[in-house]
Every structure is written in C-alpha cells, then in structure tokens.
Amino acid sequence: MLKKQFLKSKSLCKVTFSLPKEAVNEAREVRILGEFNGWKWENGVPMKATKQDFKAVVELETGREYQFRYLVNNQTWENDWAADDYQPTPFGVENSVVFVEEILDIPAKAVKGKTTSRKKATTKAGKDDLKKIEGVGPKIEKLLNEAGISTFSDLSKAKMTLLKKVLENAGNRFRMHNPETWPVQAKLAVEGNWTKLEKLQKELKGGKK
Q1: Model confidence over 41-71: pLDDT tens digits?
Q2: Structural fold of domain 2-100
Q3: Spatial distance between the Cα atoms of 89 and 39, rounded to a whole number of angstroms
Q4: Which long-range contacts (CB under 8 A, 24 or more apart) does 122-130 make?
Q5: Contact 18, 6 (CB under 8 A)
Q6: Mean pLDDT to the nearest integer, 21-27
Q7: Which end of the chain is flanked by fewer CB atoms within 10 Å, N or C?
Q8: Where are the domains of the chain?
C-alpha cells in the first residue's frame, strides 16, 4: 500500500510503502527497487518488518510517476497490492506505479469558517479529482467514474454496497480495498474543509482506519 505526505517547504513527497507479510511468506529481507534507485538490489530501500507488514519511507520528487517493485531475499519479485497503477513490461510481467502529483500552491483563505486547501482538487467538465481521497488511485477513480461517481458530492452520497460492488467487479486486485472512509472524506471535500480532511488522512492507511 502507498501513503503519501507532501512536504510544504520542498517539491518532495514522503511515500510510505508497505507490503503485507502474507504476500512474502517467511521473507528474511525485502527491499524496494525502482526507477528512483536504478533497479539494483544494493541500492534498494530496506523495508522494516512490523507485526503485519514490511514498511519503508522514501522521499520522491513531485510532478512525475515512478515504477517500482518489491524484491524478496534478492530472489522473488512482488508487486504492491494497492499501487496507483500497473505498467506492462517487455518481460511479460507488470511493474507497480506510484503517482506523485505536482501540488500547486493556492493561497489559503477562510470560507465561512472553513479552510480551503493549497491543493487544487477540481478538474474540467465538472468532475472532481477523486484521487485526493485517501485510498483512491487513478484506476479506482476510473472505476468510480464509470459507475457514475465523478464528483466529491457523488462519492459522499454513495452507498457502501455500491462502492464495494464496484471494487468486487473489478477483480481480485481491487477487492482488497476498503472504501469505508471514502464518503466521509468526500463530504469534507464538498464542505471545503481541507484542513480536517488532511488531518483525517494522516490517521488512515490505504483509505481505512
């Protein structure tokens, strides 16, 4: 899973990578290899074993996407179970992809006692950038759009049964996602309460508590 924290003072994002232990059996060592370290084991980012997963934090420059994978014991490759996207390779496998969007600085101002964010969340054609919701990546955003959910307002009113159905119909890769907090996050976005939304998202992991 991927959790992102954008740094206000730099064009950097702290990305927390986590891989469930059940995905790597009895691994001795897991490292993150990708475009940001030349795909080399010796340059790979070591992941610390916790009770439930392997975890590591990497600072990445914003404004681009990065392909990566996890290498277990310098032998077995594993993809992130909740990557932002997956990119086919010439070797017949897919790489995981993390999107690190460029954050535009927009002066904050008070609106009816609530705070607007420096993050631009609204896109063209009346759609909202649903990727601002913790747990929603580009692929899931597309699935939601196809289900008629294209704005924060739509998502805030969406029934949990519908959200789970959308994920289940998309296959095993998406069934493990938990949408329980998406409507709550979307409601805060509708209200323009970005400060409270960011505070909530810091408490979430992959969009769930």
Answers
A1: 999 999 999 988 999 999 999 988 999 999 9
A2: Immunoglobulin-like (2.60.40)
A3: 14
A4: 126/150, 126/151, 127/151, 128/152, 128/189, 130/155, 130/186
A5: no
A6: 84
A7: C
A8: 2-100, 110-202
